[in-house]
């Protein structure tokens, strides 16, 4: 497929003011895109907008990915403001590091509702507009869609669900000229990774993300991969690119990573740390 330039393309992104969202928005703006910045944090959005001085090329809207009506209002307003919506990036997401023994129902369901249901709501709200433009939908998933870490049942389930969701709707939407893709980065430097690095359970599992198979990549690598996915309307992009073989044979590589990456003693220690942290949180 011929690469499409992003100049004057209208791009909607949820979770726009977060670490990765903000970095991606800056890169897209530099390439001439028009940005509809959606987030639940109005203060962060207001600060972010100062980086984009041209009001004809960037505007913010409050939107909650747990509320489809909120998303519909934002999508409709963005389409009215810019005249169309060409690309939608479902980026909003959260993480949770807790074992089954310590995870509450509310915590588990919150991750699923934001990370998985939020993608569905985002795409559903955007659908009339991307159908009209024969546009492109991109969901930010994770390598966790293929390799399922202990203490991350909610997160890995949500990211695997995003992958499956996009594979399903891709076939449905072809008739409208709409393409659907997923981006699957490994660990990279964001506030989300900082939370993991500062978590005793996470450190027990993944160390400092400096050794295979949990080596971190730069946020620039992930931003560039996302732009490549958008420009070429890719179905699936992994970061680093070599991880694509894991996406094609997840069952095989999952067992390999489990064997070399998740030693029994490390998992036991991580569970103990997480259970202790949960007890302190509940006290």
UniProtKB/TrEMBL annotation:
<dbReference type="Pfam" id="PF00106">
    <property type="entry name" value="adh_short"/>
</dbReference>
<dbReference type="GO" id="GO:0016020">
    <property type="term" value="C:membrane"/>
</dbReference>
<protein>
    <submittedName>
        <fullName>(-)-trans-carveol dehydrogenase</fullName>
        <ecNumber>1.1.1.-</ecNumber>
    </submittedName>
</protein>
<dbReference type="InterPro" id="IPR036291">
    <property type="entry name" value="NAD(P)-bd_dom_sf"/>
</dbReference>
<dbReference type="GO" id="GO:0016491">
    <property type="term" value="F:oxidoreductase activity"/>
</dbReference>
<comment type="similarity">
    <text>Belongs to the short-chain dehydrogenases/reductases (SDR) family.</text>
</comment>
<dbReference type="InterPro" id="IPR020904">
    <property type="entry name" value="Sc_DH/Rdtase_CS"/>
</dbReference>
<dbReference type="InterPro" id="IPR002347">
    <property type="entry name" value="SDR_fam"/>
</dbReference>
<keyword id="KW-0560">Oxidoreductase</keyword>
């Amino acid at each position: 497929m011929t690469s499409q330039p992003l100049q004057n393309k209208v791009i909607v992104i949820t979770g726009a003011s977060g670490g990765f969202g903000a970095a991606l928005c800056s890169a897209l703006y530099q390439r001439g895109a028009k940005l509809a910045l959606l987030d639940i944090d109005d203060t962060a959005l207001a600060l972010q907008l100062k980086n984009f001085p041209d009001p004809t090329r960037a505007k913010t809207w409050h939107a909650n990915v747990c509320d489809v009506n909120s998303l519909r209002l934002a999508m409709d307003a963005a389409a009215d403001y810019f005249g169309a919506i060409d690309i939608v990036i479902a980026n909003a997401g959260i993480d949770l590091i807790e074992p089954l023994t310590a995870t509450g129902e509310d915590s588990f369901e919150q991750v699923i509702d934001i990370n998985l249901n939020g993608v569905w709501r985002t795409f559903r709200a955007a659908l009339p507009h991307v159908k009209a433009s024969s546009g492109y939908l991109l969901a930010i998933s994770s390598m966790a869609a293929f390799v399922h870490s202990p203490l991350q049942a909610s997160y890995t389930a949500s990211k695997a669900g995003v992958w499956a969701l996009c594979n399903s709707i891709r076939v449905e939407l072809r008739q409208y000229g709409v393409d659907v893709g997923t981006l699957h980065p490994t660990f990279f430097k964001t506030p989300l990774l900082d939370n993991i690095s500062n978590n005793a359970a996470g450190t027990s599992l993944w160390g400092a993300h400096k050794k295979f198979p949990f080596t971190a990549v730069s946020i620039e690598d992930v931003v560039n991969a996302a732009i490549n996915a958008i420009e070429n309307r890719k179905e699936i992009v992994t970061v680093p690119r070599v991880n694509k073989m894991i996406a094609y044979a997840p069952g095989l590589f999952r067992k390999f990573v489990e064997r070399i990456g998740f030693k029994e003693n490390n998992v036991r220690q991580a569970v103990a740390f997480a259970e202790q942290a949960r007890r302190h949180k509940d006290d």
